[in-house]
Fold this sequence. Notes:
Helices cover about 35% and strands about 20% of the residues. The chain is an alpha/beta fold and about 500 residues long. It folds into 2 domains: about 1-150, Leucine Aminopeptidase, subunit E, domain 1 (3-Layer(aba) Sandwich); about 170-485, Aminopeptidase, CATH 3.40.630. The strands form 4 sheets. An 8-stranded mixed sheet has the order 7-8-10-9-13-17-14-15, sandwiched between helices. Strands 1-6-5-2-4-3 form a 6-stranded mixed sheet, with helices on both faces. The longest helix has 26 residues, at about 155-180. The mean pLDDT is about 95. Manganese (II) ion binds near residues 262, 264, 339 and 341. Zinc ion binds near residues 259, 262 and 280.
Amino acid sequence: MDVRALKYTDDLRGDVLLFVAEDQVENYNWPTPLMKSLSEAQGFGGKFGETAYLAYLEDGAEKPRQVILSGLGKSAELSLEKLRRACGKALNEADKRKIQTLSMLPWSLDVLAAAAVARAVAEVALLVGYRFDRYLAEKKERSLTSLQVCYEEEQEVDVIRGLKLGQTLGQATNMARNLVNEPANYMTPEQLAKEAIEAGEQYGFAVEVLEEEAILELGMEAYLEVGKASANRPRLIIMRHLGNPSEPQEILGLVGKGITFDSGGLSIKPAQGMGAMKSDMGGAAAVIGAMSAIAAEGLKLNVVAVVAACENLISGTGYRPGDIIGSMSGKTIQIESTDAEGRLTLADAVYYMVTKEKATKVVDVATLTGAAIIALGNTTTAVLTNNQELYANLELASESSGERIWQLPSFPEYREQNKTPYADLKNTGGREAGTITAGLFIEAFVEETPWLHLDIAGTAFSAKNQDYLAEGGTGVGVRLLYHFAESLV
Ligand code: BES
Ligand code: MN
Ligand code: ZN
């Protein structure tokens, strides 16, 4: 989708999109009296989620002018995320009406700043038309291919800046969606590393990839155990954006879970729904996407991202329940379930992050527990932290991105569930509070470093299309992590 800024003039032609709040309907400054009366005739009330379609022939015109009205609800209750949803509905309506180029009239509500509105609209424009159709011989083309965002003179700088950022974020999110949607026979650890290298070349960050020998040399035993059964060998992917060379010791570390397929191993998963486990590298996709946006925008901070990519399969060379394994930190781990593999790879990855990369803040992102879906459903990412100040920054990022988060407690009693008499830790804490015990397992490897843990098991993959979210990979985390990084600048 082509998105561009256009200075508004009274004689603007073509098909248009108008956002109208409920309390604005009465005194709305309609571009033409005809638009106003047609809108009234349709009974358009500006309710949130309401859309209306008008078409009329202007004097001397050859084809009718089409108008999409999109309701925002009460302006006092408007948020950026509500605007995104309204925009998603409006763009889908325009597409359904076979409109090709749509011009959005200048934003006229003070409740949201023009730059943020432009960013949100550009994000939605890119996200709404996304389909994973790489393997289809016949692709369904969308008719809506171009959006012009009109602005008044004084909004020019803000709108142009907002559109640029929104496009970057939309693109990076769609890239993450592609990474998740690619099946595991294609998206192997090796391929994931190649994708990271390509993203680095495109957006301007450095990528280093370590193969097995080098990973072994680092002592990442827990990570390597998980990948032992698969012929698709592990890759440790390290991405670097050094945007603040004047403070080289300040480093934000992003760690993404990169299980390219999770069969469960010997603790095998039920057949039903196992195919969705190609999405078990959703955390990796989020950090690759976020690094892309961070580098593209040239954020003035140092960010290192790490993905310990591997595949959790079943074979004679795999690890077993009951095994006691080592880890990079030296802590030993008793395997209760080979299906609790994510925390093993993350334990080594976060330990690597704090000891080798010397990260001063760490965020890990992972499709870690089914329990997160039970607790919070598909709308909200579960978060654990050892640092409330850092969590406050994540809340700001959640507000900017519209990606919902909810903090779970980390009371000391929960840590007891990860204990065993035979090793320093065990890799499951039982069914109760499964999301919390999984997070606290990882906490044991971040040392004292301020840390956030994002469990995106519920939010990374969607079973259905909704507003601007296509089914399949959602790209969750890309925009959240970008705004989080931005909040630290
Ligand atoms: N990748 C899964 C978690 C998951 C489940 C993500 C459903 C998305 C949708 C993870 O590796 C896993 O299998 N977790 C187990 C942990 C258990 C064995 C302690 C789970 O949640 O059942
Ligand atoms: Mn698993
Ligand atoms: Zn998993």
